[in-house]
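Action item from last week, closing it out:
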Amino acid sequence: MYENPTSYRDSRGVNWSTLSAMRTSPAAYHYRLTTPRESTAAMDLGRLIHSCVLEPDLVAAHYAVWEGGRRGTNEHKAWVAENEGREITTAADMDKAQAIAAAVWAHPAARRALHGGHVEVPLHWTDPATRMRCRGRVDHVRYGRTETALTDLKTTRDISPRAFGRNVEMFGTHGQLALYRRGLDVLGFKPGPVKIVAVTQEPPHEVAVYVLPDEVLYAGEVLIDRLLAEVKLWRSRRRWPVRYEEETPLMFPTWALPNDDMFTDEIEVL
């Protein structure tokens, strides 16, 4: 079950980062599947935060911090060459990631959720319904005698229950965690509680720990069942249609439509 992260990236199987694109359209899924995804500054920072929180002992080996002046100079290029094989980051991003890590580990409920267990756990399994190969990498897993706890780390702007709940639905996080939970189940580990450690990227880096209710996990199961079935369908047809192939009625906002109230006032003609 455990393996080098590089071999996970090179492995085959449907994962959440591609499967989630099927929520837009088969065409979006196929594009995500076949097009290398360029890393953005936000993605780079996200990986750094995960490393600082979950694998602090490996940060120095995996990251090089540029503390010089302007990038792109001969000095900077030479320094990058000297640090080949390590991810390059800035002192500002490293300071932010370490401050976030400190906030997470200072939070009692987050510390309990992430204490012990295994981090960045790669999973590979065959989906029972579609017989498709699936894979995922779980932030934190704690194996127990009776059940296996699954915890995910997310950064956000607002950790309030309502705002973060909307984000979970909008980004399909409930589907992502239901997919990982299914993978653990198929591999013989009885699913236990599923938690999200949410932390704000901006100071004071507030932290909240959310336990996903059964109804939310069920909604995630329904979502991944639908998405996996659609992947299997369009694979068999060897076609990846866009979202709207036919003429589609426009959904114009009702508040912008004219109504009788607009004409009740008398208009004075000069």
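Closing note: The radius of gyration is 23 Å.
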